[in-house]
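Suppose you are handed only two things: the residues of a chain and a line of SMILES describing adenosine-5'-triphosphate. What would the bound structure be? This form records exactly that question and the answer produced for it, so the two can be stored side by side and reused later without any lookup.

QUESTION INPUTS
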Amino acid sequence: MKLEIINLCCSVEDKEILKGINLVINSGEIHALLGPNGHGKSTLLSCIMGHPKYKVTNGSILLDGKDVLKISVDERAKAGLFLAMQYPPSIDGVSVSDFLKSCLDAKNDKPVSLYKFVKELENSCNDVGFDLNMVHRPLNVGFSGGEKKRCEILQMETLNPSFCFLDEIDSGLDVDAINLVANVLNKMNDGSKGMLIISHYARMYNLVKPTHAHVIIDGRIVVSGGIEIIEKIDSKGYEWIKDELGIEIKKEESSPKIMLGSCGAKVVKND
Ligand SMILES: Nc1ncnc2c1ncn2[C@@H]1O[C@H](COP(=O)(O)OP(=O)(O)OP(=O)(O)O)[C@@H](O)[C@H]1O
Ligand SMILES: [Mg+2]
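ANSWER OUTPUT
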C-alpha cells in the first residue's frame, strides 16, 4: 500500500501551521519524523486522521490513489489508518475491553467471537505489560502516563492497521516499557504496514530502526534522509539546520503582554 501526502497545508484557529508537506510512505517502510516543539508534527497526524479542528487549506492525501480527505474519520480508520496519540483522551463510562471490541467489530464486517477476542486481548496485554485487570476500567480515566501509552499500543495490536502513526509513544514510558513497545512494533513490522514514528529521542529509533528520517521546521519538511539525520540531531540538536541549510528556526512570535482582564476569573450569574 502507499500513502501519499502532497503539498499539504493546514490551519488551526486561522493560524497556518502546515505550509506544504510532501511525504510518501510505502508498506514495509518506517519513517522517523523529528523537529522542534510546536513545528507541526502532531498537526500533520491530526490532518491525516481528520481531526475537525484542523482545516486542510491546500494539497491532498492519497491512500493507494484514493482521496483520504473526502472520507470521514471512521472510514479512514476502516481503511487502515491508525494514530497512537501524543495525548490520548479519556472516555468515562466506556471500558477498555468494550472500546476495543466495538472498534474491532466496526472495522470488520461481522463481530469477532468473544472467545477469540478475549484470547487475543490477553496476548496483547502481555505483549505491552498492560495489567489484565485494567481492561475493565474506563478508557484512560485515571491512567498513568505510561499506562495510556501502553493502551494505545494495545489498540494498535488489536486493530492491526495498514499504516501506524505513533506520536511520541515513548514519552512517559519507563525503560522496560519502551523495550516492550519496540518489540511489538518490530513484530508488527512484517512488510505489510507502513509506520511513521514521531520521537524526540534516538533511543526509540535505535530500537525500531527507521528506513527514512525527516525533519519538520515551521510546517515544512526541510531535510529527509536516513538514520544519520537522527544521530546528528541527537548529538548536535537543530542548530546545524540553520548553519548548513540557512533555515531559521523561528521562536514563538512575541505576543502582546498578558492582560489582567484575560486572566481574571469571571463571575457566573445564576439567574
Ligand atoms: N487545537 C489547537 N488550537 C490552537 N493551536 C494549535 C492547536 N493544535 C496545534 N496548535 C498550534 O500549532 C503549532 C504546532 O503544534 P503541534 O502540536 O503540531 O507541534 P509538534 O511539532 O507536535 O510539537 P511537540 O514536539 O511539542 O509535540 C503549535 O504552535 C500549536 O500551539
Ligand atoms: Mg506533538
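WHAT STANDS OUT: The pocket of adenosine-5'-triphosphate (ligand 1) is lined by residues 12-13, 17, 35, 37-43, 53, 86 (CB under 6 Å). The chain is about 35% helix and 25% strand.
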